[in-house]
Amino acid sequence: MAYATKEQDHEKRVNREGSYSPENYMYRYLMDNYEPEQLKDKPSMALEGLEKTLVTKAKEYLINAGINYATGGLAPMASAVISRFIANNGEHGDTANNLGKAQENSFDTVKQSLFDLKW
Asked: Is the residue at 109 inside a domain?
């Protein structure tokens, strides 16, 4: 996700908020490693194992950022992420609800994207 300023992006990145949240990290992990069809008909025992894997991965992700996060808060988040992954068929979809709408500042957005490519 692109933020308005580099400072805002840095702040979100440091605090693991917004698109850098552990919830988004878990969802991206599922997208990279699983297909929704694999998970649809799995028994609850298998999904519990996947939930534990997601909690472990998210905890490592947060520890690398120097954030101490209670594991108890990650388990329900992992369960919700799995459900959302299956329901969305493993896609992000039109999360910004911009499908078919003209984008404001589209020239500025392209200009900023090209500028960021220099890095």
From this structure: no
